[in-house]
Q: What sequence folds into this?
C-alpha cells in the first residue's frame, strides 16, 4: 500500500492542555523513524538477555570469599562468634530480642546466602573467577532506588548479573541480565521498608577486571514528581508483577530501560493503578539506554528514532483475554512506512482496559504525545464513555483521547503504545516540536 504520511505535529503544547492541530511531518529521514521497534520483538533479539529464569536452576552457589577484592567497609559480615540463625528459627530468635535489636522483617538473617559479602555504596572492585558465583549483599532502605552497574573487561566476556530480593523466607530472583558489551545494569526498589537484596555475579569465561557500582538515589512512588525529575534512572525490577502491575519479558533489554525519574514514577504508578483494577501486568520495553541515548546505538543499530534522555517509553497493550504480552492486535499491512492495521482487522484489543492504562499518564498533564495505530486509537476512543462511567478514566481527560496529538497514528504501533513526556519545567509554557517515535 502506499505510504501513509503519519500525522505529525509541531505541537503547540500548553502543558496540561492539549496540543495544537498537527502540522505536516518533518521529513522522516531514516528507516528507523517509522520502525519504532523491530517487526517482531519476540522473534529477533540479537543480543538477547537471559531467558526468564528458573530460580531453582542455580540454587547451589559455589562461593568464594576471595571473589570480592575490596576490603569491605560496609556492614559487617556475620560476626564470627555469632550463632548461625537458621531460617526456620528466626521467629524464636527475634522473640527474645529487645524491640530495638529486632531486624526489620525485610532484612534477611546474616549469611542467608553462602559467601555473601556486604557491598559498599559506590565502587566495588570484584574478581570474577570463571564459573564461581560472587554474591554481594545490599540493604535497601525503602526510600532509595538501588542501581547496580557492573563494568568489566574484556567487554565481550560472558557475565551474568542477577538480583535477588529477600521475600521474608528466602532469596528470590527478581531478574538477570547477560547482555551488553562490558556492562550489566539492573535496579531495585522496595517502598515497603528496609529490604535485603543480593547482587549475584557469575562469569562463564575469563574476566580480567570488574567493578560493581552501587548507587542509591532517593526515590518515591507517586503521580507527582516535584524535583530532580529529569534524572535518568533504570526502571526497577518488579518485586511482584501482580502487585507492581508491570513485568518483564524474556526479550526485555535491561540496559535500554533508563527513563527520566518522572517517567519511571509514572510507569510504576500506572502499574499500581492497573494492579488495583485486578489487571495483569503490562510489559514496559525500551525507554533509553543507560547513557540516555536511543536504544540500540550501543550496537550500531538504533531501534527507534527518538527515545533519548529517558522521555519515551513503549508499553504493551491489553487484550480482551485480560493479558498484556507484547503482541499485535490486528492484521497488519506492510507499507513503506512500516506496519499498519488493515481496515476492520482489529482483534482482541481491549479498548476499555487500554483507555484505563493511558489515563494515569494523561492525568499527570506531562504527556506530550503518544503513538498508536489509528485503528487501535478508534477502538480506545469508542470505549471512552464506558471507561468514564466506570470511573476508570477521569472525565476531564476526555479531550486528550481525541485531540490527535496525545493519541496519534504512526506505523509499527499495532503492538504497543509509545508514550512521551515533557522535558520542560513543570508549569512552563513551551512549544515542543514533533519528533517521530
Ligand atoms: Zn517507542
A:
Amino acid at each position: 500500500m502506499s505510504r501513509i504520511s503519519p500525522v505529525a505535529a509541531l505541537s503547540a503544547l500548553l502543558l496540561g492542555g492539549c496540543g495544537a492541530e498537527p502540522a505536516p511531518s518533518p521529513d522522516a529521514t531514516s528507516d528507523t523513524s517509522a520502525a519504532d521497534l523491530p517487526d517482531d520483538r519476540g522473534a529477533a533479539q540479537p543480543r538477547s538477555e537471559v531467558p526468564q529464569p528458573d530460580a531453582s536452576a542455580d540454587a547451589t552457589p559455589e562461593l568464594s570469599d576471595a571473589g570480592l577484592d575490596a576490603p569491605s567497609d560496609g556492614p559487617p559480615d556475620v560476626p564470627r562468634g555469632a550463632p548461625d540463625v537458621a531460617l526456620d528459627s528466626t521467629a524464636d530468635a527475634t522473640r527474645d530480642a529487645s524491640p530495638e535489636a529486632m531486624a526489620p522483617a525485610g532484612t534477611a538473617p546474616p549469611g542467608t546466602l553462602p559467601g555473601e559479602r556486604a557491598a559498599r555504596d559506590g565502587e566495588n572492585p570484584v574478581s570474577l573467577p570463571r564459573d564461581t558465583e560472587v554474591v554481594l549483599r545490599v540493604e535497601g532502605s525503602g526510600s532509595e532506588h538501588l542501581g547496580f552497574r557492573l563494568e568489566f573487561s574484556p567487554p565481550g566476556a560472558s557475565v551474568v548479573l542477577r538480583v535477588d530480593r529477600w521475600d521474608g523466607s528466602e532469596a528470590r530472583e527478581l531478574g538477570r541480565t547477560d547482555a551488553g558489551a562490558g556492562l550489566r545494569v539492573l535496579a531495585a526498589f522496595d517502598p515497603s521498608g528496609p529490604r535485603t537484596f543480593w547482587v549475584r555475579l557469575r562469569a562463564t569465561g575469563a574476566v580480567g577486571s570488574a567493578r560493581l557500582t552501587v548507587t542509591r538515589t532517593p526515590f518515591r512512588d507517586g503521580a507527582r514528581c516535584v524535583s530532580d525529575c529529569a534524572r535518568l534512572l533504570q526502571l526497577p525490577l518488579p518485586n511482584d508483577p501482580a502487585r507492581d502491575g508491570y513485568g518483564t519479558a524474556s526479550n526485555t533489554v535491561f540496559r535500554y530501560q533508563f527513563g527520566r525519574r518522572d517517567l519511571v514514577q509514572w510507569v510504576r504508578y500506572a502499574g499500581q493503578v492497573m494492579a488495583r483494577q485486578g489487571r495483569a501486568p503490562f510489559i514496559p520495553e525500551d525507554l533509553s539506554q543507560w547513557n540516555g541515548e536511543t536504544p540500540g546505538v550501543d550496537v550500531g543499530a538504533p531501534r527507534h528514532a527518538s527515545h533519548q534522555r529517558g522521555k519515551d517509553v513503549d508499553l504493551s497493550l491489553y487484550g480482551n483475554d485480560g493479558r498484556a504480552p507484547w503482541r499485535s492486535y490486528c492484521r497488519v499491512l506492510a507499507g513503506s512506512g512500516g506496519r499498519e492495521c488493515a481496515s476492520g482487522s482489529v482483534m482482541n484489543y481491549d479498548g476499555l482496559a487500554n483507555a484505563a492504562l493511558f489515563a494515569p499518564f494523561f492525568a499527570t498533564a506531562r504527556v506530550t504525545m503518544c503513538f498508536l495505530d489509528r485503528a487501535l486509537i478508534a477502538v480506545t476512543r469508542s470505549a471512552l464513555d464506558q471507561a468514564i462511567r466506570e470511573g476508570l478514566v477521569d472525565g476531564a481527560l476526555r479531550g486528550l483521547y481525541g485531540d490527535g496529538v496525545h493519541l496519534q497514528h504512526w506505523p509499527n504501533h499495532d503492538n504497543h503504545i509509545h508514550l512521551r513526556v515533557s522535558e520542560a519545567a513543570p508549569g512552563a509554557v513551551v512549544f515542543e516540536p514533533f519528533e517521530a517515535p
User: Anything to note?
Assistant: The mean pLDDT is 83.
